[in-house]
Amino acid sequence: MKVKPFKGIRPPKHLVEAVESRPYDVLNSEEARAEAGSNEKSLYHIIKPEINFPVGTSEYDEKVYTSAAEHFQKFQDEGWLVQDNKEQYYIYAQTMNGKTQYGLVVCAYVDDYMTGRIKKHELTRRDKEEDRMKHVRVNDANIEPVFFAYKDDAVLANIIAKYTKTAPEYDFIAPIDGFGHKFWVISGDEDIKAITDEFARIPNMYIADGHHRSAAAALVGAEKARLNPQHRGDEEYNYFMAVCFPASQLTILDYNRVVKDLNGMTSAEFLHALEKNFTLTPLPDGDAESMKPQHLHQFSLYLDEKWYHLDAKQGTYDDSDPIGVLDVDISSRLILDEILEIGDLRSSQRIDFVGGLRGLGELKRRVDSGEMRAALALYPVSMSQIMDIADSGKIMPPKATWFEPKLRSGLIIHKLS
Question: pTM to 2 decimals?
């Protein structure tokens, strides 16, 4: 893999908690408006710039993208974001529930994405790509990093351990979720060279989270290369910002489903239809969290104020197929498609998805409220499954993975020129 250090643009230490935010795609405009409040330093003014306009303004309005660029410039003019004077790498550590993961912040090579050395496991939608491409173009920067994984590497681990023994540049607890965030600067020339050289020995990296941001960043870089008659190949736009974590440290939560109807069936008819491919076990009353699936190929169904475990019968999945072994594939084929006739998970209005951080209690709430008819909880996908699928060149079904914790935005930005 080809990576390089870069001159990060980031907040002064005393302003980081005023600037930092959640990623643009985990909250809606109303939530961003509320979280930003009266804080003019909030990064939401750049990554959710519709909040700079009256409620109801479309996030895709051209003036909204222009406002993002104006605020990015304002943040630099006011000294809320300052560019480092040296190209360097950075370490970003996140702590959730007592577990810490350590990521290296690098500039990844656009051509590695275009040629498939940076591997993806999800399809992207062109409309979402274009939205992020407009944001990158208008700011001439990667405002938010993408989230990569690499197979564990002892040399990189030793460098990370050396720096994380020292006092961090940033150290704060995010108020929205209580997760810890720390940040170090790798400025030593020998360590910078060692990181660059070691990544050159790593054959692949894997997109964990941020497929649309990765595609947009790489496509804008390639676009800039095509449009530049003096293109050399070493320009800053040939790279985009990523935080790269050892695969073994990452946590993937369940990504669950709620459906609005049973496709015209009664509850009894639906349960009977399930028995073709699943063994159904009614569960005793208890806390929703205790109803989670316990292993692969087991699902939890919530229907009519009752929980069930559904165990997929032998022969309904293929353990030798990287896709066919996935519980998201089993549930999509045998429940959502075959029984409920929900074929396209990306466009159907009859289904919604709930990230595992919200817990099974959120599934119960949405069904009990009458908003949804039934809920299905899945056992989480593993990082090794994701890498196997990416290595095979296959694509996972939609809404298969939920990585937590999410990267905070605003700790560092990469300018393309």
Answer: 0.89
